[in-house]
């Protein structure tokens, strides 16, 4: 089988078309018409992908645990000079000014790993995974599977102000991609495996399976279809089960019980979310501005993480709480255990350390730093409102929770991920409504003021177009019968070629088509003949149309959707389809061309851009 025919068969298998049935009454040639196979919402093969996804969820959870232990090991060695896997905070070190050297050495190691291992380990991992999904059929280099966690363990363990979630998302995604490259799967299935591994990794770190599924949809899959959603969801369930067995359940950021907010407080949280949205835009621009500044340095990029480590070390000397993942900082913020001065200092120093380190191209996640910065900003605003307007009933803890989620919603524009994540990691139901309002306001501000996000800016600069909307396919909503050309001239098998040529050369509009359906004397469709064949001088004028070697008819019924028809065109590598009636004896109704598919978008554009008033109020001017 040729390559083209293989691709066409693949397209027929993967098409959304459920099959184009043709009645035997149309004749033997129409019985042989090439049609895509009948498909269902999901194919049985999805069971195989689900099994692989669950294995990936288990593997990602185990790798996440290994990464946490590696970070603990490096932290103990770098700050305390001991060999231990016990999780400790670098903030309690006794190194004094020598602490400045620790992040510098860590940055140097990361730079060497990136130079001689893979440059893809630089950054927080999600943009790189997005790029592979969009451009490279989800094919990630296998060595990323072990280089990313190792480099992140070194960067974070030596004081890098990052979280472990970004690296494990990248690692889980790389593992899923590797499995998809070893096994015989399609590019679509490989993308699902990548997303399943990434979602499993996030679940294992934060115990937030639902948020992990939504993150996979918003930042990796760029779709919401059963054949991708089901495996990813099962992967997170498997990862959550392993996590509970290894480290137990419960919220990651425990909070005291909250009181349901009133209307005035809800309005305040929405306004707070909008302000945090502005902060997220500013943070994104500053990070990429710092990255641009590093690009101008007259030294190789391998040394940049070490230079960024200088800033991390100096800030860590004055503000030890900025060192490392800092998950306890987030819990202290949303629990209201930090005073106003401590919040302001932590917010400023964490942002300074994180933005310079991330801009230098070292390895680490962005979620935890953003949560710390946004949570501190929100809590500060909450304390301020309590002082100046106590009648609003604002709770600084809820304000911190809203700030934590809203800054991520604004920076990444992963709105639902932000809301669900904040809920799952705190298990505070009374925080859901403030979260929804605050995150939506931040999302709105970000969408109005910033074209790309902290996740997409880097790859957008390399020419990658990242989907930002997941709209229903308009072609699925239009039936073929509404869009096809019905005034189509059909030729008969008994027509003389010379007579047909005379009609074509007459210039009449109905004979300007590039292809014509051919029917026999009984009106049954026999095939299609192109204008090029009809005008070929090698065929004598006395020859009959039925003797020209007609193309087998490729048929679509009038009730099928334009999406089904478009898939059929691609699968068969043709530009037109014969349209027949749905009811026996399936009469010929017309032809559907590529131009008809494009013209069908006219109504969509009208609905999107043409504003008009249709309902008018006032007295009826008609005569009684």
From TrEMBL:
Gene3D superfamilies: CBS-domain (3.10.580.10), Clc chloride channel (1.10.3080.10). CDD domains: CBS_pair_SF, Voltage_gated_ClC. Coiled coil: none annotated. Residues 1-29 are annotated as: Disordered. InterPro entries: CBS_dom (IPR000644), CBS_dom_sf (IPR046342), Cl-channel_core (IPR014743), ClC (IPR001807), ClC-type_chloride_channel (IPR050368). Residues 484-545, 549-607 form the CBS domain. The lineage of its organism: Bacteria, Pseudomonadati, Pseudomonadota, Gammaproteobacteria, Lysobacterales. GO terms for cellular component: chloride channel complex. Its main location: membrane. PROSITE patterns: CBS. SMART domains: CBS. Residues 18-29 have a biased composition (Low complexity). It comes from Thermomonas aquatica. This is Chloride channel protein. The chain crosses the membrane at residues 46-75, 95-114, 192-217, 229-254, 266-290, 302-326, 338-358, 370-389, 401-423, 429-448.
């Amino acid at each position: 089988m040729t390559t083209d025919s293989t691709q066409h068969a693949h397209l027929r298998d993967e098409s959304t078309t459920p099959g184009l049935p043709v009645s035997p009454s149309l004749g033997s040639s129409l019985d042989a018409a090439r049609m895509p196979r009948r498909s269902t919402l999901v194919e049985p093969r999805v069971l195989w992908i689900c099994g692989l996804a669950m294995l990936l969820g288990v593997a990602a959870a185990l790798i996440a645990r290994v990464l946490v232990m590696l970070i603990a090991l490096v932290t103990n060695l770098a700050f305390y000079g001991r060999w231990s896997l016990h999780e400790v905070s670098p903030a309690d070190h006794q190194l004094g000014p020598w602490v400045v050297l620790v992040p510098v050495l860590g940055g140097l190691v990361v730079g060497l790993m990136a130079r001689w291992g893979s440059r893809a380990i630089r950054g927080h991992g999600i943009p790189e995974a997005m790029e592979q999904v969009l451009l490279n059929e989800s094919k990630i280099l296998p060595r990323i599977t072990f280089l990313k966690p190792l480099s992140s363990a070194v960067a974070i363990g030596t004081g890098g102000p990052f979280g472990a979630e970004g690296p494990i998302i990248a690692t889980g995604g790389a593992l899923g991609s590797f499995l998809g490259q070893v096994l015989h799967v399609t590019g679509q299935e490989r993308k699902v495996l990548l997303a399943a591994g990434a979602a499993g990794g996030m679940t294992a770190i934060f115990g937030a399976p639902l948020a992990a599924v939504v993150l996979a949809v918003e930042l990796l899959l760029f779709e919401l279809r059963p054949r991708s959603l089901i495996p990813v969801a099962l992967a997170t369930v498997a990862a959550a089960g392993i996590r509970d067995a290894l480290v137990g359940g419960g919220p990651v950021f425990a909070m005291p019980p909250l009181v349901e907010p009133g209307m005035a407080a809800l309005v305040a949280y929405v306004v707070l979310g909008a302000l945090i949205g502005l902060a997220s835009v500013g943070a994104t621009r500053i990070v990429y501005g710092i990255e641009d500044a590093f690009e101008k340095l007259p030294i190789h990029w391998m040394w940049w993480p070490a230079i960024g480590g200088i800033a991390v070390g100096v800030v860590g000397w004055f503000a030890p709480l900025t060192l490392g993942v800092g998950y306890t900082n987030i819990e202290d913020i949303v629990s209201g255990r930090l005073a106003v001065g401590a919040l302001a200092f932590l917010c400023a120093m964490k942002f300074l350390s994180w933005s310079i380190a991330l801009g230098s191209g070292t390895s680490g996640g962005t979620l935890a730093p953003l949560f710390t910065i946004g949570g501190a900003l929100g809590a500060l605003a909450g304390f301020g409102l309590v002082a100046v307007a106590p009648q609003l009933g604002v709770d600084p803890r809820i304000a911190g929770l809203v700030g934590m989620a809203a800054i991520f919603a604004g920076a990444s524009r992963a709105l639902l991920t932000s809301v669900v994540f904040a809920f799952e990691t705190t298990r505070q139901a009374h925080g859901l409504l403030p979260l929804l309002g605050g995150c939506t306001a931040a999302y709105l501000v970000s969408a109005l003021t910033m074209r790309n996000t902290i996740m997409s800016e880097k790859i957008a600069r390399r020419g990658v177009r990242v989907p930002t909307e997941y709209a229903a396919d308009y072609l699925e909503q239009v039936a073929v019968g509404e869009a096809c050309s019905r005034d189509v001239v059909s030729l008969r098998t008994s027509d003389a070629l010379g007579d047909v040529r005379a009609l074509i050369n007459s210039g009449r509009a109905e004979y300007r088509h590039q292809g014509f359906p051919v029917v026999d004397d009984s009106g049954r469709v026999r095939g299609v003949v192109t204008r090029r064949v009809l005008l070929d001088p090698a065929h004598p004028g006395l020859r009959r149309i039925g003797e020209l070697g007609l193309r087998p008819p490729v048929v679509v019924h009038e009730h099928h959707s334009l999406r089904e028809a478009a898939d059929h065109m691609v699968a068969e590598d043709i530009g037109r389809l014969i349209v027949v009636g749905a009811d026996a004896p399936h009469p010929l109704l017309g032809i559907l061309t590529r131009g008809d598919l494009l013209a069908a978008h006219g109504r969509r554009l009208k609905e999107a851009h043409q504003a008009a008033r249709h309902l008018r109020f006032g007295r009826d001017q008609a005569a009684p």
